[in-house]
Design goal:
Order of helices and strands: EHHEHHEE
Number of strands: 4
């Protein structure tokens, strides 16, 4: 089992655009409404790019391997990376409660426990202004929620 780390910081308006955060799915039929065709074209063009995090955490595995920020065999190592991500951005969290050190330590501890069980972890925080910070850890062995997805880094 191993874990991939992903991080994204961007405009909340882009994060809120769900059509580009979902895989395209099946192509619309010729009789589908124009809006369905538009959303499908948008998803085909935008989903593979690293511009936004996917809605489903495991779908990070469908993104280019260049989006991987780190890979770890042990959940504690992945948790340490998560802790560094949270510490780096905590001062910019919009909510003072979310900046509290004890809360951040508990988030990391819970993440390590989930990773040890083979689950994925996804966290997000609003930063001051109109920015959103998303961080995720995806477990491979294979992934529980989408076992058919290949590992983007081609690790066993």
């Amino acid at each position: 089992m191993h874990h991939h780390g992903y991080a994204w910081v961007g405009e909340k308006a882009m994060f809120d655009k769900e059509s580009v955060r979902r895989p395209p799915g099946e192509a619309p039929t010729p009789t589908s409404e124009q809006e369905v065709h538009h959303r499908y074209r948008e998803a085909v063009a935008a989903f593979p790019s690293p511009e936004t995090p996917p809605i489903q955490t495991a779908h990070w595995l469908m993104k280019p391997s260049s989006t991987i920020r780190g890979t770890w065999e042990e959940p504690k190592e992945a948790g340490a990376w998560l802790g560094r991500q949270l510490a780096e951005f905590a001062a910019r969290f919009a909510s003072p409660q979310e900046r509290e050190a004890t809360r951040l330590l508990l988030l990391v501890k819970a993440a390590v426990e989930r990773l040890a069980e083979g689950d994925d972890v996804s966290l997000g925080h609003y930063l001051r202004g109109t920015v959103f910070h998303s961080v995720a850890l995806v477990t491979r062995s294979p992934n529980r929620s989408v076992p058919g997805l290949p590992c983007p880094s081609h690790l066993p």
